[in-house]
Every structure is written in structure tokens, then in C-alpha cells.
What does this fold into?
Amino acid sequence: MGPSLRLREIPQHVLRVSCRRCERIVEIQKVDAVRLYGQQASWKEVAQRLLDNTCQNRTGRHEEDGCWPAFAPV
It folds into this structure.
């Protein structure tokens, strides 16, 4: 599942993204992702938002903050 795909193009029912930095994994049902972000949203945008919303790596420096998504199939 590539990061450039739109949500409507993804056949999986469960979407999973992991962070290359902290190794955290976040999953969301595709139907919930579509409801929250819309069918036209790219998987890359949704994945980054999911990680950012629950990020625990906050240093206060913009260059160092946040998670780094690694896209993997379910």
C-alpha cells in the first residue's frame, strides 16, 4: 500500500502505519479514516496525521519533533 494512494483506492479494511523513529504502530479502520478525512485524502496525509495526533516524541524543536511514517501493508 503506497503512501500516494487515495483512501478510496486502498482495498484493505484496516490501515496501519508505524513510526521509524519510536517504532509505534497506529491502526485505523478504513471506514473510520474515510469518515474523518474523506475519500480523496491521500494515505500519506492520513498516516502522518494519525502519528502526529498521538506523538510522544516532543522536544520543542520543530526539526526534531514528530514521528516519521513507515508505510507497511497489513
Q: What stands out?
A: Residues 7-71 form one domain.
